Write the structure tokens for this entry.
Amino acid sequence: MVEPTPVSVILPTTGWNDACEEIAAQLRPGDELLVVCDRAVESVAERIDDRPDDVRLVVAGEPEGCSGKANAIAAGMDAAECDRLVWSDDDYHHPPDWLDGLRRDYERYGPTTEVPVFVGRDPLARLLEPTHVLSGTLAVSQGGVPWGGSLVFERDDIDEAAFLSDLRRTVSDDGLLMEYADITSVGRTRRVEIGGSVRETLENQVRFTKIVRHHEPTAIVGQFVLGTVLTAGCVLFPLPALVLLTAAMAGVYAAFGVRRWTFLAAYPVALAAIPLLAYGLVRRTFVWGGRRYRWHSKFDVSVEAE
């Protein structure tokens, strides 16, 4: 029996949590889990001391000129010992077959990503779920867009030196990876809770908009055109637009196995599409993970403590 290719799983986090336990339990001989933190976290170090050498703490340090997530991924890639790399986030459940699923995906398709389903934790985030299903779930599934929360690739799939150099001067890790690798999406979805307060949801909206602005600027034009058409249709033909948008969103939800009432918000979200887009573009800063970012251009980022 052929032994599976070893993988290095890179997990940025702020402390030891369920995701660490879930992934560590799935490691095979030769694999490693790199728990990446900004600083040495005693609770993480204590838990790792009780485990075999396949789980390591990587201290990334404070980011300078990039996001904390980008800094953590770069530090993890530098420290990783395997050529096959898996990126993960710590904010969703990793079932027992998660890592083996990504192994099989790579053998079959090469660089591969799973698909997120973003579920709101506060009223505004729940109201905006249809936009996340379209721009997060559907776009990742159909557009060859990587999701940094669950993907696999090998170092030879990218120009690693150039990628790491660029990663240390930008915000979006997966937005940048999209420019370096051809990613295949698989049908598996992972439920990810986002938001928690209205302010946090608004900050996320700004960040998501600016990722598209800097990595796919033509998509911003497309969003503006589509948003304008939808808004006009909703205003001029409110009842047909309400029925058609709700039915179409219900179909998208069903296609991805999303059983949430929030598809009913498709009509008001369509009315708000242009204001939301404008808000994300006009805001000069956003907060993410306790830091305030000013994203001047793709590779020009200022970071401040929040």
Observations:
- The longest strand covers residues 184-194.
- The longest helix spans residues 217-236.
